[in-house]
Amino acid sequence: MHISIIAIGKMKAGPERELIARYQKRFSQSGKKLALTGPDIIEINESRASTVDQRKSEEAGKLSGAIPDGSFIIALDEHGKNISSAKFSQKIMDIQQDGIRSIAFLIGGADGHGSRVLDHANLKLSFGQLTWPHQIVRLLLVEQLYRTTTILSGHPYHRA
After folding, report:
1. Who contacts 105 (Cβ-Cβ below 8 Å, separation ≥6)?
2. CATH value at residue 21
């Protein structure tokens, strides 16, 4: 199953990008044994529309247009479910066992997701009620994806 992360905003060079690349590589290596590939990161420019509603709508359209066909859609949203790493891993495994070929994680812009994204998401997931910059959310997500491979393979990285 292939994993994509589709995010509003562009990453600049720096420590966040380096950590993301490190966890992407770890996921790629450990995911092979579990038939998990990726995660690809697709970056979408932030909307420059003048109102919040216009920005959210424009960004939602761009995010939706970048989702691979047939993907299970997970929108990262502060109002989504807050689950443990073990439950996150189980959800990834369940999706894969259902025969779904790809998962698309959607990260919204500064104003959050538009209704087009939230209405079509199969799951809304939260990393807590705190507000995080998109760079940090990407890092948290890629680390959790790597953690998922270690949990599913019995590797000692996850010590819950």
Report:
1. 3, 4, 5, 6, 39, 74, 76, 141
2. 3.40.1280.10
Does residue 58 sit within a domain?
yes
**Is residue 131 a part of any domain in this protein?**
yes
pLDDT tens readout for residues 48-75: 999 999 999 999 999 999 999 999 999 9
In a domain, 159, yes or no: no
Q: pTM of this prediction?
A: 0.95
Full residue range of the structural domain in which residue 99 is found: 2-153
Residue 160 has a pLDDT of 66
Domain count, the chain: 1
DSSP string, 79-106: EEE---HHHHHHHHHHHHHTT--EEEEE
* Non-local CB neighbours of 133 within 8 Å, separated by 6+ positions: none
pLDDT band at 129 (very low <50, low <70, confident <90, very high): confident
- Give the Cα separation of 25 and 149 in Å (integer): 12
